Amino acid sequence: VTYPAHASKYIVDPITTEEPQPKYPPMIIGITGPTGSGKTTLAIAIKAHINSLANERAVHIKAFSSELKDMAVHMLYDWMLKHYSGPMNCREIVQEQFLKQLDGEYKQDIGRPLFQGLGEFARRVVDPSFWINQIDEYTQTHTEDIILIPDVRFLNEAQYITHHKRGVLVRIEGPDHRGETLHYPEHSSET
Fold first, then answer.
1. CB atoms < 10 A from the CB of 173, how many?
2. Chain-centre distance of CA 112, in angstroms?
3. How much is the average pLDDT of 30-49?
4. Contact, 130 vs 122, CB < 8 A?
5. CA 148 to chain centre
6. CA 80 to chain centre
7. pLDDT tens, position by position, 118-170
8. pTM for the whole thing?
């Protein structure tokens, strides 16, 4: 249907004048527990279960520490661009070797201490809520219905989740994946 130009101010288009549906904040499920207790495994299982229900829910796993790897990669890459002149490509070294090694063979003696150090630096020097602010910004700008956070390690992180309108905090305990009693390492991030 074509309307005269002067009539446009009187025409109501039902498609564009509908009230927008309210956007509820996502449900946040935080998971806390000692090293090796299965926090990430539990988050993956919850996501798979919710997705298997085929209920159109958007579920995302987003760790407080998810930015740490990016931070480490950028720092190393910048340093290598300035100081490395060997035969390998800097990007290949950082992406293919560095990250694989930190998640694999060197996780316990290099990867974990490196990420703990970067995390502590951000918490102590920049802002005690640095990692919380990253998650909060994410929840404000993304549309997932449920966000799973498998690395709740500090009291302020737990409080952020429990004070969130739709937050739930889960503590996982018990033997690790090898059936051994879990130990609590000396680092403040290991609960």
1. 10
2. 17
3. 90
4. yes
5. 8
6. 27
7. 888 888 899 999 889 989 998 888 888 899 999 999 999 999 999 998 999 99
8. 0.71
The one-letter amino acid at 12: V
The H-or-E segment that residue 169 falls in is: strand 167-171
C-alpha closest to that of 153 among 125, 120, 108: 120
Average pLDDT over residues 33-62: 86
Which ranges of 142-175 would DSSP assign to H, the alpha helix? 155-163
Residues present in the chain in total = 191
What phi and psi values does residue 157 have, to the nearest 5 degrees? -70, -45
Helix (H) or strand (E) holding 113: helix 112-121
Contact 11, 3 (CB under 8 A): yes
Annotate 39-107 with DSSP letters as a single string: HHHHHHHHHHHHHHTTS---EEE--TTHHHHHHHHHHHHHHHHHH--SSS-HHHIIIIIIHHHHHTTTI
What's the rounded Cα separation, in Å, for the pair 35 and 45? 18
